[in-house]
Design goal:
- The protein contains 15 helices and no strands.
- 44% of the residues are buried.
- It is mostly helical.
- The chain is globular, with a radius of gyration of 21 Å.
């Protein structure tokens, strides 16, 4: 049964966020020659056009936005605007990731990491290393994921970024779980929750409590698993986090299915699916539909199984 691990989307604190709000903050980074200034503004226009494409746009429209982002990156590269180049590539990678085009996203995030390392932007580098680690984990390259996440953790601690440290510990816990090292997974996730409770990071705790429940479920500690995921569900509902609520319902369903209570599992999946369809989260929707189909298949209801699996 597929458990869903939800990535917390920590936005890069990129220079274009400043450009839209406080353009004067970028004055020192803009080129000085007339030709380069013209190119810079051309790149800004491309970035803004791509950034205006909503998440609800068609796949073709979003892929066109990717081309604009990478086009902007090429121009920024040509005039030596490295931070802006990194931010443009990062934006393109985010869209690839959202479209579940993981190899393309990974390729761009690696380029972003190289640039951020060159310009000593450790804050955004830590965020990017988390994303790279997550993608390696998604692809089953767990040892490589751990390598990148440990570097990210060192940067988070160097910067005294407690929220980022907890998030990175959550990813490290998930990676140890994938490696089969359950005690290390539990230790990392518990450490993350301690930090999240201390700083009041409910959004982060929703994710980590859910992931802790997943690990408990994998070692047969089903009561603890239910308690953790139920806590994630409670926090999500209190804070209005619909994606967190859907992920928690999904994972409760998976746990009850493992316990053999398929009626409860189907009920939780149904609740989750109603939310997921409003969010347009493809990966979570696919996992949920597949899991429902597997239950019906196990129950011998081939007709219903086919509705969800095909």
């Amino acid at each position: 049964m597929t458990i869903f691990r939800r990535q917390k989307l920590v936005a890069t604190i990129g220079l274009f966020a400043l450009l839209c709000v406080q353009p004067s903050l970028l004055a020192a980074q803009q080129p000085t020659t007339p030709i380069d200034r013209q190119k810079y503004q051309q790149a800004v226009a491309l970035f803004r056009a791509a950034n205006a494409v909503p998440e609800t746009a068609s796949d073709d429209e979003r892929r066109a936005a990717i081309k604009k982002f990478t086009g902007a990156a090429d121009i920024f590269h040509s005039i030596g605007s490295r931070a802006e180049e990194a931010n443009s590539l990062n934006a393109a990678a985010n869209v690839h990731d959202d479209l579940i085009e993981k190899p393309e996203a990974l390729h761009l995030y690696l380029r972003v990491a190289d640039i951020l390392g060159e310009i000593d932007d450790h804050e955004n580098l830590a965020i990017t290393l988390n994303r790279i680690g997550s993608l390696y984990l998604h692809g089953g390259l767990n040892a490589k994921a751990l390598q990148y996440l440990n570097v990210a953790l060192a940067f988070r601690r160097e910067l005294k970024d407690l929220q980022g440290e907890a998030f990175t510990l959550t990813l490290i816990g998930n990676t140890y779980d994938a490696l089969g090292e359950k005690p290390k997974a539990l230790a990392a996730l518990r450490e993350a929750i301690v930090i999240q409770k201390r700083i009041g990071d409910k959004a982060g705790e929703i994710i980590t409590q859910g992931d802790l429940g997943v690990v408990y479920s994998s070692i047969g500690e089903n009561q603890k698993a239910v308690e953790c995921v139920a806590q994630a569900l409670k926090l999500a509902r209190e804070s209005g986090d619909r994606e967190g609520e859907a992920a928690a319902l999904h994972n409760l369903a998976a746990i009850y299915d493992d316990l053999g209570d398929t009626a409860a599992a189907l009920d939780y999946y149904d609740q989750a699916l109603k939310i997921i369809l409003t969010l347009k989260k493809r990966e979570l929707e696919g996992n949920t539909l597949n899991n429902i189909g597997v239950i019906y298949l196990g129950n011998g209801d081939l007709a219903k199984a086919r509705d969800f699996l095909y």
